[in-house]
Amino acid sequence: MRAATLLTLCCLAAGSCRAPPDFCSQDLNLGIQPGSPKPINTNDPRVLKAARYSVEQFNNYTNDIFLYKEAHISKALVQVVKGLKYMIEVQISRTTCRKTSHPTLDHCDFQTNPALQQTLWCYSVVWVIPWLQWVQVPVLRCH
Asked: What are the chain's domains?
């Protein structure tokens, strides 16, 4: 299926093609075929956004009093399915921010105290259906 066809499907699902280019149309012009995972730059803004979303999910599930944030993305793939699936290998580290203060992760520094430092490697799948404004993390494994 060509990118133009995917864009048309995206516009039909969104209900209008008159809106300015959005996340949906940008992502579906990647030039990749549906069903085939392809490498994507680890610095791509969509990858960074997906990695942040998966780390936020990790923070919601962990009992740690400190928040974690992404330290390094080592590998990223994108797959066109019903939406887009980002498969990300990311290193996350404990920050100095406590969960109770609810700061944005952008303002959290990594722990410098050796007794509190902790780093985990995670594999995450972030599934995005932009025209439905829907995001899910069906896979999140950290060790």
From this structure: 32-142 (3.10.450.10)
